[in-house]
């Protein structure tokens, strides 16, 4: 047991809790944490009672007799994630979990720093580079894109946005590349990655000027596609569409200093929505501090807004908050 990671221990605990309780626990985690623990759950085999007892002894002795030994781990993981995230969101996470367990080369991507990945993407065929970027978390993919030469970015984003899934042969080719360069190996299975939403999510995490330039280049090649990507992008002003309770949930996660900087230059509508979902005293203090604050650099304001959007997106991915949209519109 000493060799087991914290993620492995958490996975054992979730097996012990049963599907319903495990789903309830996962709802309070962000997508990255769910993927990490799901990966550990998928790897665990030959779970013994002693392993369960040790973990329960460390965490919650009260659930010692509520184990889920003997379950089909793949089916269990799928059921738990679907219950906690919903079928659409869970599908992407599930595919990445099982792809990671069966493809050691590709799995090693997450351990590389952004500079190393950007060097890899820059030297590979653009389609391979697009697949690599699509398999990273959106924030890390954005860091990688920032390090890639500008004349390559738009082509990569265009390929990501138009990707309709990846066939096993393409993933085997990618895994072979990882095996050669990162000592990875083994075969892989098909998964659904890329697409307009993936491109929009990566652009959301890039600097405003950089993402705008990429969109402009894509528009020159395919104006309709650029519009579709932009429609899926999540901007700071979109927070006005949050319900009152969801806005309150978000504000509890955002430091006051970060909010104060992010609200510089934002619309009166968004400011009033935020004030309305704070206590009267807190709203008065924020309003006064905002009026008394000295000018700030646009880059600093944009950075703070992106940090808040990142928090909001984690809450969205976990199903904790949703967006209220007009009839006929899609949820983002």
Automatic annotation (TrEMBL):
Annotated compartments: Bacterial flagellum basal body; Cell inner membrane
GO molecular function: cytoskeletal motor activity
Domain Flagellar motor switch protein FliG N-terminal, residue spans: 3-104
Flagellar motor switch protein FliG C-terminal domain location: 217-322
UniProt organism field: Methyloglobulus morosus KoM1
Its job: FliG is one of three proteins (FliG, FliN, FliM) that forms the rotor-mounted switch complex (C ring), located at the base of the basal body. This complex interacts with the CheY and CheZ chemotaxis proteins, in addition to contacting components of the motor that determine the direction of flagellar rotation.
GO BP field: bacterial-type flagellum-dependent cell motility; chemotaxis
Keyword Hydrolase attributed: no
Family: Belongs to the FliG family.
Domain called Flagellar motor switch protein FliG middle: residue spans: 114-186
Keyword Membrane part of the UniProt annotation: yes
Protein name as it appears in the record: Flagellar motor switch protein FliG
Membrane topology: Peripheral membrane protein
GO cellular component: bacterial-type flagellum basal body; plasma membrane
């Amino acid at each position: 047991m000493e060799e087991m990671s914290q993620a492995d221990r958490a996975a054992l605990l979730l097996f012990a809790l049963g599907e319903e309780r495990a789903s309830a626990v996962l709802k309070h985690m962000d997508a990255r944490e769910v993927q990490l623990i799901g990966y550990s759950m998928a790897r665990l085999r030959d779970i013994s009672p002693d392993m369960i007892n040790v973990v329960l002894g460390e965490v919650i002795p009260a659930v010692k007799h509520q184990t889920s030994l003997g379950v089909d781990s793949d089916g269990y993981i799928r059921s738990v994630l679907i219950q906690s995230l919903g079928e659409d969101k869970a599908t992407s996470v599930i595919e990445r979990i099982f792809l990671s367990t069966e493809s050691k080369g590709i799995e090693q991507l997450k351990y590389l720093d952004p500079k190393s990945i950007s060097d890899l993407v820059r030297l590979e065929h653009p389609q391979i580079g697009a697949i690599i970027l699509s398999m990273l978390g959106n924030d890390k993919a954005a860091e990688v894109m920032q390090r890639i030469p500008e004349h390559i970015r738009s082509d990569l984003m265009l390929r990501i946005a138009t990707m309709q899934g990846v066939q096993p042969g393409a993933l085997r080719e990618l895994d072979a590349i990882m095996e050669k360069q990162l000592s990875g190996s083994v075969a892989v299975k098909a998964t659904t990655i890329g697409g307009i939403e993936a491109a929009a999510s990566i652009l959301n995490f890039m600097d405003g000027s950089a993402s705008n330039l990429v969109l402009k280049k894509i528009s020159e090649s395919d104006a309709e596609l650029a519009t579709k990507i932009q429609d899926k992008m999540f901007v700071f002003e979109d927070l006005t569409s949050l319900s009152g309770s969801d806005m309150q949930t978000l504000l509890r996660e955002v430091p006051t200093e970060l909010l104060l900087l992010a609200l510089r230059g934002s619309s009166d509508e968004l400011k009033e929505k935020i004030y309305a979902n704070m206590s009267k005293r807190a709203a008065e203090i924020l309003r006064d501090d905002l009026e008394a604050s000295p000018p700030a650099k646009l880059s600093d304001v944009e950075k703070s807004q992106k940090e808040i959007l990142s928090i909001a997106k984690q809450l969205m991915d976990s199903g904790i908050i949703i967006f209220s949209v007009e009839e006929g519109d899609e949820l983002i």
